[in-house]
Amino acid sequence: MPVPRVGARSAHSGAKSRTWVPAEVTDLGLTLGPLRRGPADPTFRTTADGSVWRASLTPQGAATLRVSRHGDAVEADAWGPGADWVLDGLPALLGAEDDPSAFVPRHRLVHASHRRRAGMRLTRTGLVLETLIPVVLEQKVTTDEAYRAWRRLVRQYGEPAPGPEPVPGQCLYVMPDARTWTCIPSWDWHRAGVDAKRSGTIIRAARVARRLEEAARMPLAEATGRLEALPGIGPWTSAETLQRSNGAADAVTTGDLHLPGIVGYALAGNADADDAEMLELLAPYAGQRHRAARLILLSGRVPPRRTPKMRRTDIAAW
C-alpha cells in the first residue's frame, strides 16, 4: 500500500514528500523514459544518482517531481502549487494502473525482451495537452528538429520550475499554459522551426484544452475520438499521446515511417511491412499491442538501413 508522508526532508528543504511501495518491480528509467523529449528536454532530467526529475503544469499549478528508488520503495519529493497533485498521481505515473499480467508473449523475440525488462510499466500522466504538444511538434519532421522546437518554445514561453535545480546551473522549466500557447506570434513559431500546419494544430488544441483533458479519463476508443475530432490530429498523434497520458496498452502507433518495418522485420523478417501487415502481426496481442511494439523496439532488432534518413529542414533559415 502507498504510504504518504507529507513534510520536508532535510536534503530537500520545502519539499512535500511521499513514499510508495509498488506491488511489482518497477524500473524508473524504462517506465518514465517515454516522457523525455530528447537528451536536453527542459522539463525532464535524470541525475547521476538515478533520480528522475520532471516539471509539469498540473490542474493545480506548476510542480517539480523528483523520484528515486530506495530498496523496494519509491521516494518522491515535490515542489510548487501542484505538488499535492503530482504526489497523488505518483502510483499511476509509475504504472500502478498498468496490468502487465494481461500480456502473453507470442514470439520468441518478444518473450526474451519481456523477460529482460520485467520492470517496465506503462506510465499514465493524466495530462493530455502536456503530452500532445510535443507529439504534434514531431509530425513529419526529424526528431532532432522536434526536440529543438520543444526546447526553444518551453524555455522562451514557459517558466522556471519550482524547487531546487537537479544539477547546479541546469534549471528545469514548466511548459507554457494553454493561453500562452495561443498567443505565441507566428514569427516565433517560425524561429523555432515549426510550420504553420503544426503551430495551427497546437493553437487549436490549446483553445479547447479543457475538453481535451477530459480524454485522460475516457476509455481508449472514446479518448481517440475526442482527440481526432480536432483538425491536425490523426491516428499517429492520438496514439502517441494516449500511450503516455492514459497509459493505453493497446494504442498502437500507425502511420509511422519506421515502426511497421521494425515490427515486420523482428517478427516476420519483412523490413518492407506496412501498417496493415504490422497490425496483422500484432493481432495476437490485442489489448496489449502498444506494449508488444515497445518491447520489440527495446529488443534492438531493427532492419539494416537501406534508405537515407529523413532530410532535415530548418524553416527558421528561410
List keywords for this structure.
318 residues; alpha+beta; 15 helices; globular
Kindly describe this structure:
The chain is α+β, with helices and mostly antiparallel strands and 318 residues long. The protein is 40% helix and 12% strand. The chain has 15 helices and eight strands. The protein has helices at residues 28-32, 83-88, 90-93, 108-116, 128-137, 143-157, 178-183, 186-191, 196-207, 209-213, 220-228, 235-245, 259-268, 275-282, 289-299, and strands spanning 3-4, 16-20, 44-46, 52-58, 61-70, 73-79, 159-160, 173-174. The chain has a six-stranded antiparallel beta sheet. Helix 4 crosses helix 15 (289-299). The protein is globular, with a radius of gyration of 20 Å. The relative contact order is 0.13. The model is unreliable at 1-11 (pLDDT under 50).
Instruction: Tell me the fraction of residues in β-strands, as a range.
Output: 5-15%
Question: What is the arithmetic mean of pLDDT?
Answer: 93
List the uncertain runs.
1-11
Number of helices: 15
Per DSSP E runs of 2 or more residues, the count of β-strands stands at 8
Sequence of strands across the biggest β-sheet = 1-2-6-5-4-3
The SS-based structural class is: alpha+beta
Largest sheet, in brief, is:
6 strands, antiparallel
Helix content: 25-40%
Helix and strand string, N-terminal first? EEHEEEEHHHHHEEHHHHHHHHH
Shape: globular
